Amino acid sequence: MNFLKRYLIPRLVQYILVIFLGITAVFIIPRLLPNDPVAAMIGVMQARGAQMEPGAMEVAINALKEMYGLEGSWWEQYVAFWSRLFRGDFGVSFFQFPTTVNQMVARAMPWTLGLLLISTAINWTLGNIVGGLAGYYSRRRWSRLLDAIAMVIRPQPYYIFAFMLLLVFGYFIPWFPVAGGTDLGRKLVFNWVTIQDILHHSFLPAMSMIVLGAAINFQTMKLIVQNVNAENFVQYAKLGGVTESRIVGKYVIRNAVMPQITGLALSLGQIFSGALITEIVFSYPGLGTLIYNAIVNGDYNLIMGITVYSILGITTMMLALDLLYPLFDPRVRYT
Amino acid sequence: MKILRDLFKDYRFTLSFSVLLILLALAIVAHFSPDDPALTGAVPRDLKPSAEYWLGTDSKGQDIFWQAAFAVRNSLIISVIAGLLSRIIAILVGMVAGYVGGMTDRVLMFISDSLLVIPLLLILIMMAMLLREYMNLLILALLLAVFGWAWDARVIRSVILSLREREFTQTAILSGTGTVELVWKEYMPFTMPLVFSTLINNMAWAIGLEMTLAILGLMNVNIPTLGTMLNWALAYQAILLGRWWWILTPVVLSVFLFVALYWLSVSISEYLDPRTRTQRVGT
Question: Is A223 close to B277, i.e. CB distance below 8 A?
Answer without folding.
Answer: yes
